Amino acid sequence: MVGRRRKSQLKRIWKRLNEGWVGNIFYAVLGLLLAFFFYNVVLSYALNTPTPVVAVVSSSMQHDNPEVTHYKWLQEHFNYTREFIDSWPFPNGFSVGDMPVIKGSKDYKVGDIIVYRVPGQPAPIIHRIVKINEDGTFQTKGDNNPTQLPYEYRVERSQIYGKVIFIIPKLGYVKVALTRIIGFGW
After folding, report:
1. For 92-145, what is each residue's pLDDT tens digit?
2. DSSP 106-147
3. In the chain, which end has fewer C-beta atoms inside a 10 angstrom radius, N or C?
4. Which residues form the domain of 7?
5. 168 lies in a domain?
């Protein structure tokens, strides 16, 4: 008796989920979840990284005042020329709300923008490699930051998810909104 009642309840629920506006919402949500899962799995595999896309939630890579925070700092600390700096990928940085596409790599060079994790930080860091240390670790810096942060002097390869290969402008604003409104993590 209990089995029949439960089966009958399940049939009613299933019927309700398949009809009218409730059914439309159910299938829309189901479709989005499946698309997100498929998108993450396929992109992760194709781009060789567990995090194929991220959203920019800080202004550390914007070029509001590049003469001081970007060019001058790099010239003073590493003696880089403006021509060398301008030859780097994404020479104009990117903005809050942009969505970088990440590809895993074995080869990183000065100027590449990488996404990496810092122990104790809830969100990944998206900064530019400014120097390769003698031991093979990397130094990074946000283009818009006045100086390097303490964790940027020695980034291990094992911390790196990959390097930025493409920017989708403004598509990351949903994540930015969630981060700012409810403190939603990465």
Report:
1. 999 999 999 999 999 999 999 999 999 998 889 999 999 999 999 999 999 999
2. S---TT-EEEE--TT-SS-EEEEEEEE-TTS-EEEE-TTSSS
3. N
4. 2-47
5. yes
